[in-house]
Specification:
The structure holds two protein chains of two kinds. Chain A is of the alpha/beta class. Chain A is built from 17 helices and 15 strands. Chain B contains two helices and no strands. Chain B is an all-alpha fold. Classes of the chains: A alpha/beta, B mainly alpha.
C-alpha cells in the first residue's frame, strides 16, 4: 500500500468506526466532546482535554444555578462505556430534547428568547469565572416551553483581558437576523437557512434601513462591526492587557447586546391567516365538532408525538395535546406562529412547540455533508399527524396531485387526521377564482382513492353544518 | 499575554477589534454604575440598596 492508500484506508476505518460508535453527524466541531447514540439513548462523551472546565462548571455551582433557572438542560453522569475510549474523561446522559428545531423554523419571539437565554447564561458564567466559547443558535432548543442551552461543553475559563470569543457568532446567529426581521422584513429569518453560521454581518448591514445607524446597539454591533471586519480582515490581533478589557468591559458588552436585542420587537399583524378563524366560512358548531373529533381520536390513539401541520395559532394542537402528547404546531405564517408562541408562554404550556414551516418546501437537510441539520421529514415520523383545512392548499394552490399528498403524509405520520375540503366550499372557490380548474380528480372519491393506496380509512365523519369531511386514517 | 488556549472558533480580527471598542465604551458605564453609591455619597445622596438580582432573574420567560 502506498502512504496515500494507507491514509485513505485508515480514514475509511475511522469513518466506519465513528459511525459504529453512533456519533451524531452534527456533533463534530468542538474537540471537547461529542454526542453519540447507543441503544436509542443519547449520551455525550466529555473528552480528557475538557476535564478541568467540566469540573469547574459543576464545582462552582454554575451548572446547578443554570439548571435551576431553566437555562441549561440537565444531565446525569453515566456508567456507559465511552464511544472513543482514548479521548474519554466522562460520559453524561443529557435530558432528551423532545423535538430538535432550528432557528429558521422559529418565530421572532422564539429567536429573541433564545438570544436572551444565551446572554443570561454568559452573565452567570462570568460570575463563576467562566465564559461561553460559542453562541450558536443551534445550541439552544425549546424544552418544557423554555429556550435552553443544550451544549454542556460550551463553557471555558474566563480570563480577564480576553474578549468574548463568541461575540461574532452571537451577532450573526441572533442580533443580525432579529434586527432584519424586526426592522426590514419578518421573512428574512430564512437567511439562516442559507447561512448556517448565521447572517454575515456585512449583508445585514447592507440590508438594514439606514435609520438603524441612529440606534447605538445596531450602529456598533452591526454597521461598525461590518466595517471593522472589512478593514481588518486577516490582520493578526494582539491581545489587550486586562486593564483595557476588564470584566466590567465584558459585562458592558453583554449588557449592550442584551439591550440591543430587547429593543427589537415585532408584533404579529393580520398577515396571511393570522386572523384566519375570524374570516373562516364555517360555523361555531362545525368548529366545535372538529375539536370534539380531534380530541376523541387523539384519546383513542394516545400519541406521544403529534405534528399539527398548518396549525394556524394552534387551537387544534392544544386539543390534540390534552392527553399529554408533545405537539409540533407548525404554520407557514410568521404572524400565526408568533401568536401561537406568545399564547404558549402565557399559558405555560410545556408540551407545545410552535414552528414556522412551509409544507410546500419543508426544511431540508443542510450543513456539512448534508447531515448537520436534519430535514423536517427526517425528524419524524409522528405518531399522529393533523392536516386540518390544509389539503386544498397543497392540491390546488400548489398543484400537488392527491396521490403525492398521500405519499408525503404516509412518510411523516403513522396515523393521520385529515380534513377534506370540497370544491364547492367557499375557501376552495376563492383559490379557483382567478385560475383555470385543472383538478378534475379533486373530489371526495378522488381523495379517498388516493389515500387508500397508503392508509386504511378508519373513520370518515361529515363535519356538522359544513360540506367538509374529517378522516381518521392509519398508515398501511 | 496570549489567548491560551486558542479558541476552536475563529473569532475574526475585525470582530475582536470592534468589540474592544464597544466594550471599553460600555464598560465605563458599568464602572460608573458600580461605583454610583460612592459617587452619590460625595453629593450627600443616600444610596439605595440593590440586591444582586442576576441569580434570580428569569429571562426569556
Amino acid at each position: 500500500m502506498t502512504t496515500n492508500q494507507k491514509q485513505n484506508s485508515t480514514q475509511a476505518q475511522h469513518d466506519l468506526l465513528s459511525k459504529s460508535h453512533g456519533q451524531l453527524s452534527a456533533s463534530f466541531r468542538d474537540p471537547s466532546g461529542f454526542l453519540f447514540s447507543r441503544g436509542g439513548v443519547l449520551y455525550r462523551q466529555i473528552n480528557l482535554r475538557y476535564e478541568q472546565e467540566y469540573t469547574r462548571l459543576i464545582e462552582s455551582g454554575l451548572y446547578d444555578k443554570l439548571v435551576k433557572a431553566g437555562l441549561l438542560v440537565q444531565h446525569a453522569e453515566a456508567e456507559e462505556a465511552p464511544a472513543e475510549s482514548d479521548l474519554a474523561y466522562k460520559i453524561i446522559q443529557p435530558e432528551r430534547v423532545p423535538f430538535i428545531s432550528y432557528p429558521y423554523e422559529w418565530s421572532f419571539g422564539q429567536l429573541k428568547d433564545a438570544a436572551l437565554t444565551t446572554l443570561s447564561i454568559q452573565r452567570r458564567a462570568l460570575k463563576a469565572g467562566m465564559s461561553l466559547k460559542d453562541a450558536s443558535a443551534y445550541n439552544i432548543q425549546f424544552v418544557r416551553g423554555k429556550a435552553m442551552l443544550i451544549d454542556t461543553l460550551s463553557f471555558e475559563f474566563y480570563k480577564e483581558g480576553q474578549p468574548w470569543v463568541a461575540y461574532r457568532q452571537f451577532c450573526q446567529h441572533f442580533l443580525a437576523p432579529l434586527a432584519l426581521m424586526a426592522l426590514k422584513d419578518i421573512r428574512l429569518n430564512q437567511l439562516l437557512r442559507v447561512y448556517i453560521d448565521g447572517v454575515p454581518i456585512d449583508l445585514a448591514s447592507e440590508l438594514l434601513p439606514s435609520k438603524t445607524k441612529f440606534n447605538f446597539g445596531l450602529l456598533t454591533n452591526i454597521h461598525l462591526h461590518a466595517s471593522a471586519q472589512k478593514k481588518y480582515a486577516g490582520t493578526e490581533v494582539k491581545s489587550r492587557p486586562a486593564t483595557t478589557f476588564g470584566k466590567q468591559a465584558m459585562i458592558g458588552l453583554i449588557d449592550g447586546l442584551d439591550s440591543a436585542v430587547r429593543k427589537l420587537d415585532w408584533k404579529p399583524g393580520g398577515t396571511e391567516w393570522g386572523n384566519y378563524y375570524d374570516i373562516t366560512n364555517y360555523s361555531d358548531a362545525a368548529f366545535e365538532h372538529k375539536k370534539q373529533l380531534v380530541g376523541e381520536w387523539a384519546g383513542r390513539i394516545k400519541p406521544k408525538l403529534v405534528w399539527d401541520l398548518g396549525a394556524n395559532n394552534g387551537v387544534f394542537s392544544r386539543v390534540a395535546g390534552e392527553g399529554g402528547a408533545y405537539v409540533i404546531s407548525s404554520d407557514i405564517d410568521p404572524a400565526a406562529v408568533e401568536q401561537n408562541y406568545r399564547q404558549m408562554k402565557s399559558e405555560k404550556n410545556e408540551n407545545l412547540l410552535p414552528l414556522l414551516l412551509d409544507l410546500t418546501n419543508p426544511s431540508p437537510s443542510i450543513g456539512w455533508a448534508n447531515e448537520e441539520r436534519d430535514s423536517f421529514a427526517g425528524r419524524g415520523p409522528a405518531d399522529m399527524a393533523l392536516a386540518l383545512a390544509l389539503v386544498h392548499h397543497l392540491a390546488i394552490s400548489n398543484n400537488v396531485p392527491l396521490p403525492q399528498v398521500a405519499d408525503f403524509f404516509a412518510k411523516i405520520g403513522k396515523n393521520l387526521v385529515i380534513e377534506f375540503v370540497p370544491k364547492s366550499d367557499s375557501q376552495v372557490q376563492k383559490l379557483l377564482v382567478s385560475r383555470e380548474d385543472i383538478f378534475p380528480n379533486y373530489t371526495r372519491e378522488g381523495f379517498e382513492s388516493a389515500f387508500r393506496r397508503r392508509f386504511k380509512i378508519c373513520e370518515a365523519v361529515n363535519v356538522r353544518e359544513s360540506e367538509r369531511v374529517l378522516y381518521l386514517m392509519e398508515r398501511l | 499575554m496570549h489567548f491560551a488556549p486558542l479558541p476552536y472558533l475563529d473569532p475574526g480580527s475585525g470582530s475582536f477589534l470592534i468589540q474592544l471598542l464597544i466594550a471599553t465604551l460600555l464598560g465605563l458605564g458599568v464602572a460608573i454604575r458600580a461605583s454610583w453609591g460612592t459617587i452619590s455619597k460625595w453629593f450627600g445622596i443616600k444610596p439605595k440598596t440593590k440586591a444582586d438580582d442576576d441569580d434570580d432573574e428569569s429571562e426569556a420567560k
